[in-house]
Write a structure and sequence with these properties.
This protein is 42% helix and 19% strand. It has 342 residues and is an alpha+beta fold. The structure holds zinc ion. Zinc ion (ZN) binds next to loops.
Length: 342
């Protein structure tokens, strides 16, 4: 085998460089390189042929082939870098992401309106130094009725439409049994609020078999109906605005004496009369009174020395007033679309 002349090598190199420069994709570039520097490439074969060349010519041939190989490799690397950069740029251009488009986002939940109002109410009373008491929803007849001065055959029990459960217990009809539990434990003077679910066999636009109450008790050596009214006025104005008024009506509850029910001016019509308040300008809200001495005695509190007042109202009713809802049931429908509007 005769060795290639310098001119032939120059020609080989020129062809290789042309093929490399002409390659317009990475596969074609690799193909072009393989034809020169692959296992059967022209330069590779020439290098392999050095051994058979004229000994006098071997050094020149080896040097020229190696230099040619280095130059071709360098051109190949440059071309490869250029093709890869181009491909990356094209990809960026074609698969462009518009980061200014609005995202789908995650919807965040929020507290139920009754829970929001309950927390707001509790915050008002804790601000006045009331503590928070809690108790079970399944109660004994004694705590729910008897200790609160409802004797077994007392007609006032009929007002409460009680759900009884097995074993003679019942679903508490008001939060007042928690009063009993707390007053048996606490030493006067004390003041506390109770919130929670209560149950009555009752169903209508403004009543649900399950609803929420908040009630408060304050027992001290000098508490008066005037203190009670002052607190309720401040509470109503905190919840419904500075312009609302309260109206007290003499009433009867076994566990308070004297007792009153109170109404709040309809915030919807400011007392002028509208559909929400049945044209009366007032909305019934809750009951209150001075704690009956027998209830204090049932809790081993000296009724000669101490007296106290108690009040209670529906949280759901307050939510209806606050949010102008036509029915209490809107609050308990598991329909997020409605609750979101409140
Ligand atoms: Zn009204």
């Amino acid at each position: 085998m005769t060795s290639r002349t310098s001119q032939e090598l120059a020609e080989l190199e020129r062809e290789a460089v042309e093929a490399i420069e002409a390659a317009d994709s990475l596969p074609r570039l690799l193909e072009a390189r393989s034809q020169v520097l692959g296992r059967k490439g022209t330069i590779t074969e020439s290098l392999r042929g050095i051994g058979a060349a004229d000994p006098a010519d071997r050094a020149r041939l080896g040097r020229e082939l190696n230099l040619a190989k280095q130059r071709i490799e360098a051109r190949f690397a440059d071309r490869r870098a250029a093709l890869e950069a181009g491909a990356r740029e094209r990809e960026l251009r074609e698969h462009r992401l518009d980061v200014t488009l609005p995202g789908t986002g995650l919807r965040s939940g929020h507290l139920h309106p009754v829970t929001q109002l309950e927390r707001e109410m509790v915050a008002f009373f804790t601000g006045l130094g009331f503590s928070i008491e809690d108790g079970p929803q399944v109660e004994t007849d004694y705590n729910n009725f008897e200790a609160l001065n409802f004797p077994p055959d007392h007609p006032a029990r009929d007002m409460q439409d009680t759900f009884y459960v097995e074993g003679g217990n019942l679903l508490r009809t008001h939060t007042s049994p928690v009063q009993i539990r707390a007053m048996q434990r606490l030493e006067p003077p004390f003041r506390f609020v109770v919130t929670g679910r209560v149950y009555r066999h009752d169903f209508g636009p403004r009543s649900s078999p399950m609803f929420h109450q908040i009630e408060g008790v304050m027992v001290d050596e000098r508490t008066s109906f005037g203190d009670l009214k002052g607190i309720l006025y401040a509470f109503a104005r905190q919840l419904f605005g500075a312009r609302v008024d309260l109206r007290f009506r003499a009433s009867y509850f076994p566990f308070t004496e004297p007792s009153a029910e109170f109404d709040v001016t309809c915030p919807n019509c400011a007392g002028a009369g509208c559909g929400t308040c049945s044209q009366s300008g007032w909305i019934e809200w809750g009951g209150c009174g001075m704690v009956h001495p027998r209830v204090l005695e049932n809790c081993q509190i000296d009724a000669e020395r101490y007296q106290g007042f108690a009040f209670g109202m529906g949280i759901d009713r307050a939510a209806m007033i606050r949010f102008g809802l036509p029915s209490i049931h809107v609050l308990f429908e598991p329909d997020a679309r409605i609750l979101e509007q409140i």
